[in-house]
């Protein structure tokens, strides 16, 4: 069976299809009991604003079903052209077309009814054409940089050069602000041109939003007392938003074109934090206060428009709110063991602080992006909640000079093909057929607590709602929606059950150019009789199922104490194989799996060994980082995180996929491993010796030079299209860096079986079971009576 399990799913060129939706089950069982027997949750991976050349954009408002349904007209609606009526497929209400649809007929249908337009986008003009508002340009993007200065000279130098490059790439109209922090927080008033003007906040104790605004002269009371209005150089202006005169926004946030010189000068003058660090102590760093000040400033100046706080952090927070470790070097930063034993004194307090920060940012519609570059931990595990709930980006690197940081940071600001398509202020609404309830979403979003009849009693991730906020989202943002099947007695009024179920995803968002858009995706799937295993098998997507399980298990490991993930996965796999496998009782040799399930055991084997489940070798920061990316990536990318891909390069054949097995190592091959977070080029012993002798530089060995170059070129293609940029590791057989490859391979040859190994191959020093042994045990347990 292990041999059968090795193939890879023949994915089409675009596995997500035109709608960007993949489901664990494409045929749904009709009852709750049958759904629970399916073991794998009924879930969908959705890409709210994925770009596709075929998406039709309509320049008018959508036509909606009557409340409380409010679904948008779509190709699955039944239309009576003579009576000018359409029937909503989700709630079966009859709706009249408005007068401006009078010209429709079977030969003349609007774009939203084209059968191929199940995903469509509306870009309506502003409602009031006569107002000045309609001609006003869309709001510019806002970038507030929050820079850590408790760094060594060299690191600060790397950070400054990255910042200079970023400022050069910003659109001219983008508003830019600057905060630096060390022992204290410095907020720069860029609009004060005469001299450098800085507001200083102490980093020791928490300060309220009102206090921050008072000190900056942006609160209602300070404006009344004349602090901001009438200051030299600022216009006298009435209060707007109850906050500030409109001119005062340009005290702290200036268009990039106007402040490029000022920012460059500030960066030139920027020094490492001058506060003395005692021997045996860490630097005093107040990350929490710096982010509070940044959030307060944006809340006063640009509430409700797309704004990003970009935090560049080079070490742990050691004072004030959000502190993760004390300044004494004798106290180590918390590990997974400390968290399990509840021996991390600062952890829960810091998480609570970042939860409150997340609530503030979500209410303002702003995003927190985190770029953490340090050899030790900086507190990503605590900050995870505020990054994930605002839809922020996260990058973890070893240094500000490392390509992982430099290239990822540059990608945020690039335009054209390399652009991430960063969008703002998204809200996602989900509507579905009567017998379906929504349990929740795992991914970068926040529940808006909009309860309704479609909410399930069970909550997974962000639940108890049919509406979610995504302050930041981009073309590659994916979410996982979990559904519950709850058939109602009246689900089929006519007595003939409707064979199709319908789900509609509505995403309102502000695009990269500032324009407001509504993306509507309507999908349909088939109801089947849950006792008929063949129909369920036919609609099973094993890649999506593996990723859904990985995300679900990661969430359970975070939320539930004493949760044994490996055991839970093993039991789930055994139950699934007993339900859908073919076998004779007590005869392991008779066990077979349908091709739609055949590589799931292999996925589970690799998931059990992956960094998502085996956390003992990673810090809490790394685990939080891996899980945040697992939760926001496409199914294809997430599968690579769980089960890396391996390519083999040799003289005798073109590059071919190789088994993810230690047997694939050979002294005359080069292997290219894509493990998503790292890309490894591994040279066999003989190849490495030839390279060290310089054969590739001799004209008669051109073929060898090409063999060395081919994996390098392929690695660059992988790196170019990925965010965050993966770490590139180039290593040789038996070298110290070879561990990056060996850790991912199936240990079919270990030190116990070293006598059977082919010369030039390798063994793995481990007591882990191999895939073959895993599958034998699985077979035996599944067929037990």
TrEMBL record:
- Regions crossing the membrane: none
How does it sit in the bilayer? Answer: Peripheral membrane protein
Q: Which residues form the Sec23/Sec24 helical domain?
A: 541-639
The GO cellular component terms are: COPII vesicle coat; endoplasmic reticulum exit site; endoplasmic reticulum membrane
Region: Disordered, residue numbers:
1-20
Which GO biological process annotations does it have? COPII-coated vesicle cargo loading; intracellular protein transport
Report the GO molecular function annotations.
Answer: GTPase activator activity; zinc ion binding
UniProt entry tagged with the keyword Metal-binding: yes
Question: Where does the record place the Sec23/Sec24 beta-sandwich domain?
Answer: 424-528
* Pfam families linked to this entry: Gelsolin, Sec23_BS, Sec23_helical, Sec23_trunk, zf-Sec23_Sec24
Name listed for the protein in its UniProt record:
Protein transport protein SEC23
| Native source species | Ensete ventricosum (Abyssinian banana)
